Every structure is written in structure tokens, then in C-alpha cells.
Amino acid sequence: MPDSGTAQWVRLCELNALAPTDARGFDLQGRGVDDLFVVRRHALLRGYINSCPHWPGASLPWRKHAYLDQGANHIVCHGHGAKFTLDDGLCVSGPCAGQHLQAVALRIEEGRYVSALLPMPR
Ligand code: FES
User: Fold this and answer.
1) Cα separations (Å) of 28 from 21, 82, 118, 120?
2) Which residue, among 8, 53, 3, has the nearest Cα to 28 in the 3D structure?
3) Distance (Å, rounded) from C-alpha 85 to C-alpha 68?
4) Which of 40, 92, 99, 100 allows an S-S link to 53, with CB 3.0 to 4.6 Å?
5) May I ask the CATH class of domain 13-110?
6) Is 84 in the pocket of ligand 1 (CB under 6 A)?
7) How far is the CA of 89 from the centre of ligand 1 (A)?
8) For residue 55, what are the contacts with CB-CB under 8 A and spacing of at least 6?
9) Cα 31 to middle of ligand 1, angstroms
10) Whose CA is nearest to atom 3 of ligand 1?
11) Could you tell me the distance, in angstroms and rounded to a whole number, from the CA of residue 99 to the centre of ligand 1?
């Protein structure tokens, strides 16, 4: 988690832009790869850094926004097939079993905007 002294809430999107079961990546730095992603499954809303614990820095999806498995029951890494729980990012199968994705704090602002607490460059 970022240090609150050097972190700032950054608005990502409107909550309504996410389907009831959805995942969306955000390339906030314009690097051509997502920095983080948000997972929504009905009332559940979670954010994670797009970096696989099996290979830190490796991007999870095989294409933009493709973070979930076919049944939308797990987050999946295309690298070597690791599966992670939606609610806490725990790897439940694959080469990094027992490790977690790095969570990003989220909040809903003004009743409709999803914002993430992110570290600010110094
Ligand atoms: S890089 Fe994600 S499972 Fe290997």
C-alpha cells in the first residue's frame, strides 16, 4: 500500500462504466501497459497493481481488460495461468500459489466516480 504521506486519490472512471461483472485496466502513465486494474462483481469492487507475483512487473492480461477467467470467478495471469481470488488477490493455483496481488485502495467519490489511492512521484 502506498504511504499516505506521498499518495493521492486519482479518479479512474465512473462506476457505471463498469458492467456488474467486469474488469478494466488503466494505463495512467501512457506506457502502453496497464498500471493497475479494477475488478467489479456486483457489490464487490477491488483494485490491484498489474504485476504478477510470479514474475514481478509482468502484466497479467493477454489483451486489454482481459483480467478474468471465463466464468469471471478468478483473476487470471496469461503468463503461466496463475489464478487469484477476486476479493483479496490471493493466488489459489499456479506457480505463485499463496502469494497476493498488490491491492490498491479504492473509493467511490460523489456517489459515482471510482478513485484509487496511488503513490505520487517525488
Ligand atoms: S507471470 Fe503470471 S503466472 Fe507466471
Assistant:
1) 22, 25, 11, 12
2) 8
3) 10
4) 99
5) mainly beta
6) no
7) 14
8) 79
9) 20
10) 80
11) 12
For the Cβ of 107 lying below 6 angstroms from any atom of ligand 1, the answer is no
Q: Residue 47 pairs with which residues in a beta bridge? A: 38, 104
Q: Write down the pLDDT at residue 88.
A: 98
Beta strands in the chain (DSSP E): 7-14, 21-26, 36-41, 44-49, 74-76, 83-85, 91-93, 103-104, 106-109, 113-119
Work out the burial of residue 118: count CB atoms within 10 Å of its CB; fewer than 13 is exposed, 13-18 middle, 19 or more buried: buried
pLDDT in tens, the chain (122 residues): 444 469 999 999 999 999 999 999 999 999 999 999 999 999 999 999 999 999 999 999 999 999 999 999 999 999 999 999 999 999 999 999 999 999 999 999 999 999 999 988 66
Q: Residue 31: enclosing H or E segment and its boundaries?
A: none
